[in-house]
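Format notes (please read before filing issues)

Several people have asked whether sequences and structure tokens are stored in separate files. They are not. Every record keeps both together, in the order shown below: the sequence lines, then the token lines. Line labels are part of the format and must not be stripped during preprocessing.
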Amino acid sequence: MPLEIVTVPCLSDNYAFLIHDNASGATALVDAPEAAPIEAELSNRRWRLTHILITHHHGDHVAGVKTLRPGATVIGNAADASRLPPLDRPVSDGEVFDFAGHDVHVMDVSGHTIGHLAFHIPDATAIFTADSLMALGCGRLFEGTAGQMWESLSKIAALGDETIVCSGHEYTASNARFALTIEPDNPALQARAEATNAAVETGRPTVPSTLAEEKATNPFLRAGLSEVKAAIGMDGRADAEVFAEIRRRKDAF
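Then the structure lines:
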């Protein structure tokens, strides 16, 4: 039976995600920015939390774990365990673990932090990327290098275009404004920026997106394209160098 994914707004601009298996009743949570809205969603749907998947150590992704963890298996990066809430199931890059009969593929997507994970669930055609690949953007490089982040984004980009990208923040409108400074004549980007503004005005989440949308509009994923290199005066430069320049411009935007 299909997995159901529910987006849960938290704090001022964070998202958590619930993944529910209808056959078994198991429910996983990806990240826990705060407990209250997640508890409310679980109660409203009469779901029992069985797993908590942690992408990285930042407080706005783990603050609710302590409250939510009773009865749930907490899963996170073994290599970063010292900075995470106590783990019941440490996992590593390339590992595949089971959630209610569904494979969950662990991907190291370092860049925003060292040891940041993404969780890819093929049965849901979804990847949970938190602050690595984001809607029309990517996370700031607080710990990793531009080369690491470009490698991480390239891993994600290799998945199917139909993949649903469940990222961690409602930054899409500001990301769209920046993206238009890189590719102002990109019609797909223009259309997405208009749709994003309309969604924000009516209080609708702009997350999740699809990988196809990101490939068509996200300047960080598009850093390897000749038209993007030309647009910022970096013809012939290495993809990672172009990504680094786009990230530098975004940091100053």
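For reference, the curators noted about this record: The chain has a mean pLDDT of 97. Residues 3-167 form a domain with the Metallo-beta-lactamase; Chain A fold (CATH 3.60.15.10).
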